[in-house]
Design a protein that fits this description.
Elements lengths: L12 H4 L8 H5 L8 E2 L2 E2 L1 E2 L10 H13 L10 H20 L8 E4 L2 H16 L5 E5 L8 H10 L2 E5 L9 H6 L5 E7 L11 H10 L4 E4 L11 H4 L3 E5 L10 E5 L1 H6 L10 E4 L4 E3 L13 H16 L2 H20 L4 E4 L8 E6 L4 H10 L2 E2 L1 E3 L4 H7 L4 E5 L6 H18 L1
Parallel strand pairs: 3-15, 5-6, 5-7, 7-8, 8-9
Antiparallel strand pairs: 1-2, 4-10, 9-10, 11-12, 13-14, 14-17, 16-17
Helix pairs in contact: 3-11, 4-11, 5-6, 12-15, 13-15
The protein binds pyridoxal-5'-phosphate.
Pyridoxal-5'-phosphate binds next to α5.
């Protein structure tokens, strides 16, 4: 497709969806226009997928198609376009439900992203159910968005955080986890896949342990959904959150999955339009799920874009993509280990394509700047996970994070860039 945004040639997303075919990275790359861009005169090697992933034509076109032919507000209008927009919005919710195998689309709440999803749980379930002296279990390898909302809640309520420790490979110490439970434990909240270490945590096993204590579990799935199939019923968690933009969908849209009975019992989060049944100055009744948690005009285009990203993942042999990515990770590990004085952070047995490292005492920002000149996009810093930096006693790290559209050439460009970094700063 030469001109994806030309509305005259625009195809509705259904027409673009293809039957699943064996994974072929060349063909896949052609679906992502930005991968053909040059950066600083070099071909782009985009290795910052942990921060945000690129978007396929299928998603870009779905947004253009929505705005060009369907735009209206949802849930309210009696007119044709409003009904079309509402149908598209609710169809996206059903796609999300089936993508993570939720029991019902009433369990899918559209939010801005993982961060808002977690804050929603903290400010509703948490505010109502956590009191003085209660405890919430988090872990040492959390993103700040799965620490700060709980810390704020604990400060307000006089509750405290208990922290699951990890070993130096970046794996949870499950023996220690088991000892953290007490009769005051109100919630366990941990990351499915670490954005710094790539560790894939044994989610179902950890939920099983929490179940023995009757404690509900939230899982931060921001890095899991782009890399592997997630089945919330198989994991048996109570809450699961993720962001659209890390799974090839637009920014500003994300999902909170919650077990229906729990969501039913929770108070609303934001007050406003769409989340009520009846408003009187004496008495307000709230809407049913999922509207109860979706006050105001939602991100309609974003949710449709998320639905298109899910259609896209279903069309490309996602399992084949995960296998391809695992092979690429092997290749990248070997290539980085051959770089002198490079220390990998995060060497769990079970991990996905995230490669954090430090290079002798060269500051990660300096490394990132030289890599940028070579067209290699990586991230440098604390990656919103300062407790992990503390564990390894480093202020920051450089991170290359993979998606299924990356290639060995991208890794080779990274390694060439790192040799340049050593020459400049070594
Ligand atoms: C990115 C990320 C978040 C936060 O996601 P937002 O899209 O910024 O809300 C939370 N947890 C993990 C593991 C992440 O990688």
């Amino acid at each position: 497709m030469n001109s994806p945004l030309d509305i005259l040639t625009l195809q509705p997303p259904e027409a673009i969806a293809r039957p699943a075919q064996p994974f072929d990275v060349r063909r896949i790359r052609a679906d992502f226009p930005i991968l053909g861009e040059r950066v600083r005169g070099q071909p782009l090697a985009y290795l910052d997928n942990g921060a945000t992933a690129q978007k396929p034509y299928a998603v870009i076109d779905a947004l253009a198609h929505y705005y060009a032919t369907q735009n209206a507000n949802v849930h309210r209008g009696v007119h044709h376009l409003s009904q079309v927009a509402t149908d598209a919005y609710e169809a996206a919710r059903r796609k999300v439900a089936s993508f993570i195998n939720a029991a019902s689309d009433r369990e899918i709440i559209f939010v801005r992203g993982t961060t808002e999803g977690i804050n929603l749980i903290a400010q509703t379930f948490g505010r109502e159910g956590v009191g003085e002296g209660d405890e919430i279990i988090v872990s040492e390898m959390e993103h700040h968005s799965n620490i700060v909302p709980w810390w704020m809640l604990c400060r307000e309520k006089g509750a405290k955080l208990r922290v699951i420790p990890m070993n130096d490979r970046g794996e949870f110490r499950l023996d220690a986890y088991k000892t953290l439970f007490s009769p005051r434990t109100k919630l366990v909240s941990f990351v499915h896949i670490s954005n710094v270490l790539g560790t894939v945590n044994p989610a179902a096993e950890m939920v099983g342990i929490a179940r023995e204590h009757g404690v509900p579990v939230h899982i931060d799935g921001a890095q899991a959904v782009p890399h592997q199939r997630v089945d919330v019923r198989e994991i048996d968690c109570d809450f699961y959150t993720f962001s659209g933009h890390k799974m090839f969908a637009p920014t500003g849209i994300g999902v909170l999955y919650g077990r229906e009975t729990l969501l039913e019992s929770m108070p609303p989060y934001h007050g406003g339009g769409s989340m009520i049944q009846h408003v009187d100055f004496d008495e307000i009744t709230y809407a049913d799920l999922p509207n109860k948690f979706e006050a105001g005009t939602p991100n309609i285009a974003g949710s449709i874009g998320l639905g298109a990203a899910i259609d896209y993942l279903n069309s490309i042999d996602f399992d084949g993509a995960a296998r391809y990515e695992a092979q690429l990770l092997e290749y990248a590990h070997a290539a980085l280990r051959a770089v002198p004085d490079l220390k990998l952070i995060g060497t769990a047995k079970h991990k996905v394509g995230v490669l954090s490292f430090v290079l002798s005492d060269i500051h990660p920002h300096d490394a990132g700047t030289i890599l940028d000149l070579a067209g290699v996009a990586v991230r440098a810093g604390h990656h919103c996970a300062q407790p992990i930096m503390k564990h390894y006693d480093i202020p920051a790290a450089t991170r290359a994070s993979l998606a299924f559209y990356n290639t060995r050439e991208d890794i080779d460009a990274l390694v060439r860039g790192l040799h340049k970094v050593r020459k400049v700063f070594g």
